[in-house]
Amino acid sequence: MTTPLQGSQRQPRSPVWVPPPIRTVADTGLNIGILQDLAIKTLYFGGYLSGNDIAGQMHLPFTGVIDTVLESLKREKFLEVRGGGGLGAGAFEYVITIKGIEKAHEAMARTQYAGPCPVTLSQYVEAMNAQARTRFSVNRDMLEKALRGLIISEDMYGRIGPAVNSGKAIFMYGPPGNGKTTIAQHVGRMILGTPMWIPHAVDVDGQVIRVFDNVNHDALPDEDGDNNRRSTVTGERRDPRWLRIRRPVIMVGGELTLETLDLVYDPINKYYEAPYQLKANGGMFLIDDFGRQQVRPRDLLNRWIVPLESRVDFLTLSTGRKIEIPFNVLIVFSTNMPPADLVDEAFLRRIPHKIEVGDPSIEQFRTIFQAMCAAKRVPYDEKGLAYLLKEWYFKDEDNPRNLRAVHPRDIIEQILDISRYLNQPPQLTRDLLDRAARAYFVDLDY
Asked: Taking the model in full, what pTM does it have?
């Protein structure tokens, strides 16, 4: 969600950096051999294709780029022209020859990637650094709108806002069920909702790293309402290899390993999948349930020490070569484990903002319960809530049950399930509250 600011704090409608026009093969930054290989693989998998179809699949303009590539392949007898279905050279249909099939096999032995044409590593680095300069500032009103529906104290607002404005790593900790993940996701959608540009893939000396995926990235139409990426200033076509997306908010949990934080090589298709932090570049990377991963927390933390300080990450190709990638990521660690069990003083020093998300007060719990009743269409009853608190939270004065922000939602959902089974309207009666609490709470000392 993007919220406009007032006065001098108004944010730009789009990133400062936009993909430049691409007119010639030289503008791609790639040599003609890489473009030939990609074109011949596109034809090999596609069969009969027009020049415009090839240009569309490679995400490059036909005039000045694809026409040059196809002409060079035709001269070397790798493809033939088989007529056309329309006007212009782009309508001519091409078919791969026997010699071209051999070339396609040679190209696929190096990599079977046959998607949109990648950008060069230097182009990617320049674009990420340029887009990182557009700093988003959050104020109290914006934060309140982003967290609307959540019951948060004023002190918590005062800690979240400066942490977000710092652009540095955030460490959120506290008991489970109080909204750490929800707060991070809401804030991420607000501050990172401004668009940015990313490439489909990046080329590193002929090796391809796939960056864009439909799971972690939300593609947007261009500012003009479509995807033609035509500059409103010059009227020239922007480089089609780039997509306009919402800044990503990527969340990982217990599945995170050290291996997934480096380039993941596919030995069958012979190209790389970008790691989480590269896909999150320009956005937020939320590590949920930190400490529950299969690797030691200290090993994961050590992996982040250099990127957090230098804003640069180093990734390793299968050849052993290391490449330098911008680390323009708002990284958030969220855990319900005691921080002392996970991190040491040296690491906490590198995370300037530590935010404890504690249990709600009784008044906050009541407010959450009222809001959940309204949302689920269950009549709120103050006496019913008082009974629930007395019997299921504070009956044992020496060992009271902790209030959790998630309890009202879960207990009311239990009441709805039981009411449907009993074929009666949901109410905060003692019987339904007892049955819901008995089904929900677990005696951990059993």
From this structure: 0.83
